[in-house]
Amino acid sequence: MSPAWSGTLVLGIGNRLRSDDGVGPRVADRLAAAGVAAAEHSGEGAGLMAAWEGAERVVLVDATRSGAAPGTLVRLDATAQALPRDLLRCSSHLFGVAEAVETARALNRLPPVLIVYGIEGGRFDFGESLTPAVAAAAGEAARRIAGELGVVLTPEPGPA
């Protein structure tokens, strides 16, 4: 019997050098360490559509900038509903995550299951550290995704 996450691809969207914008790749790292097919992606729309081609279930994790409190975590089923355009505004690309999802929907190229986890960022300037609220939300997102996939995460290493 294949694992529950077989056919699943997790894409952590963002830029690790722009503070909280790096939250998606960090969640992907955590899930990859548990054996889930997970990768980092810039969020450029055409490349995103190519990356998920052939996957049965795709989970996107990206920073959001909606005005909510930093660390706010949202889960959207993008196969069932359109993504709010003003939720995923962190991309430096004109054709980013929301545009890729809606273009793929129009072209009938969405994966059978497409889940988007958005984590509200607080800082998007240069730096490699996540703010505390976003770091906590990243851990929660990884736990939720792992739970959906039936994956057991190893405990995160504590501070050295």
Order of strands across the widest beta sheet?
Answer: 2-1-3-5-4
Spans of at least 5 consecutive residues with low confidence: none
- Global outline: globular
Largest sheet: 5 strands, mixed
Determine the CATH superfamily: HybD-like
Report the mean per-residue pLDDT as an integer. 89
Give the fraction of residues assigned to helices: 25-40%
Cα end-to-end separation: 39 Å
Strand content: 15-25%
- Kindly provide the radius of gyration, computed on alpha-carbon positions and rounded to a whole number of angstroms: 15 Å
Briefly note the CATH topology name: Rossmann fold
Tally of discrete structural domains: 1
Number of strands: 5
CATH class: Alpha Beta
Order of helices and strands: EHEHEEHEH
SS-based class: alpha/beta
